[in-house]
Amino acid sequence: MRAFRLSLLIAVSTAAFASSAGAQTAPPPDYQQQQPPPGYQQQPPPGYQQPPPGYQQQPPPGYQQQPPPGYYQQPPPAGYYQQPPTAYQPAPGYAAPPPPPPGRHGLLALPFIGIESHQGDSGVGLNPGLVLGGILGGRIGSTFSINGELRIDVLNPKNTQSGVDETAVEVDFALSPFFHMPFPSGEFLIGPKLGFFGAASQLSYGGIDGDKTSASGVVYGFNSGVFFDVGQRSALGGMLTFAVRDATSVCYTPAGGSEQCGSVSNLVPEKVLGFQFAALF
Question: Within a domain: residue 16?
Answer without folding.
Answer: no
